Amino acid sequence: MKIFKRALSAELMSSASAIFLIILGIVVAQRAGNIVRQVSRGILPNDAIGTILTFSLVQFMPMMMSLAVFLAVLLTLTRWHRDSEMVIWMSAGLSLRQWVLPIMRFLAPIVLIISLFSLIIMPWASGKADSYREQLKKRDELSSISPGTFKESSAGDRIYFIESFDKLGYEVKNVFVQSKQNGKIGIITANRGSRYKASNGDNFLRLEHGRRYETTPNSLEVMTTEFERYDIRVEAKETAPATTTAQIKSTQSLLSDASAADHAELHWRMAIPISTIVMVLLAIPLSFVDPRAGRSLNIMFAILIFIIYNNLLSIFQAWITQGKISVLVGLWPVHLSFILLGWYLYHRRKHLKPLMPGWLKRTPKIAKP
């Protein structure tokens, strides 16, 4: 018995670690690509990539851990069925119920970590991410410029091009600025420049050793001016006051608030660790491999159930927010439905009945004589 538990725990741990790293790599690649696209469009500055990516990973951490532990249990037991190890253990007197306790012992600390992220860390990270984005919106126009790219001001009356910044972002080189004032177009070029803040709090870009060209549309006249120093006032962005959403509220404040959106968010946070336990218990009967079916059919069926489960939770959460479902009912109908599904699968597996519908099986063709 000890050998069985030790072998199961070791393989579950190694599988869960490997699957989590794979899921983490996929999420990092997807989120990093999305953030880089926003940076290339000038929506976010270059120095915000690491911070925004970190907050995104913290927000996705409970779902990544839930999926990783579900796939770890499913793939481990599937391999044991496929390699006939499960037959050996059951021949030694182990019943299907005796697999639940060691798997739940393996799952318990992971569920505690998922609960910690879902109830405490995830809302904190969401609040920090929103406040950080608000700070980025309040930055001046120069803060969102990427070196070597053209950037239009928020008012649309000025275009910047800066070839390079220093490490702190205050010294700039090879500057190009085009502006429209009083029906005339002005173009300013300078070899270098610097940023500074005046005593009244206004931000300026000081250009040194450059030229200014001023032209009138539909005219061939060009006025050229050389300067030693030229100051350009950089407009600060005006943003609307930040609104507090249910996603960034702490769990304690959700318990005291009475709005439907707050109750829906509270049910969602509790649903993540609950659904993890339910899906891991479902993985035990789903791991059975029918020799007459495809080798990966049960895995596809299990992943489909996982997707349906989470989508139903999202739908019910939206219905709670809209007032279509009572907050007392919450997401429990979804949990109870899948608990009943798990009981049904355990019952069929206990009586050695196939878990998959008959039309999913591949029936071998018998050659006619």
Radius of gyration: 30 Å
The topology string of helices and strands comes to HHHHEEEEEEHHHH
Q: How would a textbook summarize the main sheet?
A: 6 strands, antiparallel
H/I helix tally: 8
First and last CA, distance: 51 Å
Topology, number of strands: 6
Strand order of the largest sheet: 1-2-3-4-5-6
Approximate helicity band: 40-55%
Number of folding domains?
A: 2
Given as residue ranges, the uncertain stretches (5+ residues, pLDDT < 50) are 357-369
pLDDT averaged over residues? 79
Main location: membrane
Protein name: Lipopolysaccharide export system permease protein LptF
Membrane topology: Multi-pass membrane protein
InterPro entries: LptF (IPR030922), LptG/LptF_permease (IPR005495)
What is the strand and helix layout of this fold?
Layout: H1 2-40, H2 49-82, H3 85-91, H4 100-137, E1 150-152, E2 158-165, E3 171-181, E4 184-197, E5 203-215, E6 222-234, H5 251-256, H6 260-286, H7 297-321, H8 332-350
Antiparallel strand pairs: 1-2, 2-3, 3-4, 4-5, 5-6
Helix pairs in contact: 1-2, 2-4, 2-6, 2-7, 4-6, 6-7, 6-8
